[in-house]
């Protein structure tokens, strides 16, 4: 039976090298990717859990591949053993080729030892990965417990919020309107901060109002029933600041309309038993301009001004009383009511400009 020794040896060597190198290279790459992924900082909790699940799945696949590689290696080794048995029979006849076959077997043993070392290292790496996964599982369990507690707390908060919602339908509407005005209010507040720096005398009162407002906001969830009163306090504070600032700019507005005005001041007018306060009171010749300055204009403000103007007209019969109202923000459509009541409605715009509506 003539068998080419070099052919057999080459086939055995190639098969072993191909299977071992392919399996080990794939396993090392997969493990390196897993190690890199584990060391990365979690971006978001849910993504982190999903990545761990994916890494465990990949690790299982790598382990399966290693098992398959080892099974293939065992099968190939069995075949090699059979081939070597046959070679030994042939070597009895072909004594001269024994040395070469021995060298081939020695090389295969060295290769096997190297592969064994590599597999040992991979096992150590797998153990380390297993420990890391165990720690991650512990962390996941702790996070799960924390999430469970947070869910319980959320349920309790939800019940409390549900009860509060029943008591705050009107407040919710007001908050909705305030939210719509948030962007404009934010811009206005930015301007007002610059104004506050120039209003040194009002700094102490404004600081107290802002501190009170912060306390109110911090307790908003627990005390929604007091929201109307707190919002009212905020509007009063906001209104005082806006009123003083707009009053100064009204001089320019009158001048733009051709009316020379040097000063705009508030005034209290007493007519009989009625005491009426006007945010702006200007007399120019036979004309008397009376106005209100509102941070947030409502329809009821228009009716109040109309009532006071009617009383003042009866009192100043020889003069022409011209009512106007200036606002920064509004609720509803007070401009239409202003036209019906013959009241000039003016919006104070960003940058100190006035726009008649």
UniProtKB/TrEMBL annotation:
Keywords: Coiled coil. It comes from Metallosphaera tengchongensis. This is Uncharacterized protein. It comes from the Archaea. The keyword Coiled coil applies. PANTHER family: SLR1441 PROTEIN. The keyword Coiled coil applies. Residues 94-185 form a coiled coil.
